[in-house]
Write a structure and sequence with these properties.
2 helices; four-stranded antiparallel beta sheet; alpha+beta; 39% helix; flat; single chain; 90 residues
Amino acid sequence: MDIEVIKNEENFMEFRIIGEDHTLCNVLRDALLQNNKVKVAAYRIDHPLLDRKRPMFIINTDGSISPKDALLEAIKSVEKDIRGLKKKLL
């Protein structure tokens, strides 16, 4: 997965996730919003004829954590959930 960072400020980050769609973005957004330090986590996907498979993501935090660290924590949380699900299924 490639990430194209558009803005990376103290408590705001805007980036594109190259090659992904609603499947990953929904899971990631939900994991981010479970963090009380994250104020906004949202994404949009432009019309497929204009800009396909490059969702634009924004993260805004309360300033006690950087958006990058919030993103990394969310990714770890998703990984943990997937491992738990895998254990239950296998």
